[in-house]
Every structure is written in C-alpha cells, then in structure tokens.
Amino acid sequence: MVDAPDSKSGEGNFVRVRVSPALPQINKKMKNLTSVFSLFSTGITIVTNGTNKKKFFGCTVNSFSSLSLNPPQFLFCLGNENLNLKTFKLNSPLNVNFLAKSQLKLSNKFAGSLENRWKDTKYNISRNKVPYFPESLGLIEAKVEKKIKSGDHTIIICLITNFMKLNIKKPLIYFKSKYHSI
Ligand SMILES: Cc1cc2nc3c(=O)[nH]c(=O)nc-3n(C[C@H](O)[C@H](O)[C@H](O)COP(=O)(O)O)c2cc1C
Q1: Per-residue pLDDT at 21
Q2: Which residue among 33, 48, 120, 145 is least packed, with the fewest CB closer than 10 Å?
Q3: Which residues contact 173 (CB under 8 A, 6 or more apart)?
Q4: Looking at ligand 1, which atom is closest to the CA of residue 108?
Q5: Is any atom of ligand 1 closer than 6 Å to the C-beta of 173?
C-alpha cells in the first residue's frame, strides 16, 4: 500500500491505494531514465493537422527525427494518452514546424491546455490546407503513412509531400527539460 493523490478530492489530499510492490522501484528507475534522456538535446517542433478550422490540432513535439531520403520520410512519437493521437489518421495531411528561439511562448502554448492553443495564434495555411506558423525556421508538409504502437507511445511515420525554408533565425533547443538556443 502506498499513498497516491486523489484526483477527486483535489491536490494535496491523499488516499490509500494498492499497487504492485515493484512499482515504486520502477518509478524511481523511470525518473532516472528521464533525467538521462534529458541530456540529449533536441530541436523543438509543433506538429499541426486538421484542414477544418474547428478541428485544427497542434502539439509541441521534440521526438521528431528524419528517417529516410528515398522515399522522403520522418517520424515522431506521441504518448498513447495524447488526446489528439486518433486525429492522425492514415493518409491524413499534417505539418511540422521547426521552431525558432523567438517561438518559445508558442512552444509552451502548444504543450498547454487544448482550448487555448489556437486562441490569438498567428498562422497561415499551406498547400495541404493544414495550418503552419510563418515565423518558424522551416516547414515540412506530409501525410501519415504508418502508425506503430510501442510501449506507452505511438510512432507516427510520415511521407513528405512538400518542404520549405522559412526564416534564417536561431533555433529553439530543449536540453535538461529547459529551453536553450545557440
Ligand atoms: C519541449 C516539449 C516537447 C514535447 N515533446 C513531445 C513529444 O515528442 N511527444 C508527445 O507526445 N508529447 C510531447 N510533449 C508534450 C505535449 O506537447 C503535450 O503537452 C502533451 O502531449 C499533452 O497533449 P494533449 O493535451 O494534446 O493530449 C512535449 C512538450 C514539450 C514542452
């Protein structure tokens, strides 16, 4: 038995729940692993999809990786709990915005509450009818090719349909769970 937060009674109140005796150890290991993962610095992207204004989606993602040149592919990973994972349907169009240092607030906005993400956000629409952020360093237009569930995340493999450089600026970088730039 361990103490765990009770979401119904609010923060700071605790209820007793039964968990596997191995779990506290796994959690400590996971925390240590996360802190080692955080030593790998990455760029930051916002992945957008939806072609209808009422159903636009965007999410801050640093798990982006280029995958193949022939055919031109990349991948990113979304947590299986991500509310919009199901909107990435096979063959559906999406955009990847490579963020500049000046887009730090946008990065936080698109990692925050769903309702506020598009409120007062400046965007354009690209050829595939999906929104993108014109202040970004670069844009990749693509469509979903494959989804592979692995552990608590899903790998989304995409086929690139168009790409462009947008601005020459300093990049936004993520290292040790904090924003940096070069
Ligand atoms: C710098 C940064 C990088 C992130 N990268 C990812 C990522 O690669 N995959 C992911 O699922 N969530 C990532 N997140 C968390 C999401 O942006 C988002 O907050 C979370 O998935 C909740 O989204 P939802 O409300 O759409 O479910 C990242 C957040 C930050 C701040």
Answers
A1: 52
A2: 120
A3: 41, 42, 43, 44, 179, 180, 181, 182
A4: 31
A5: no
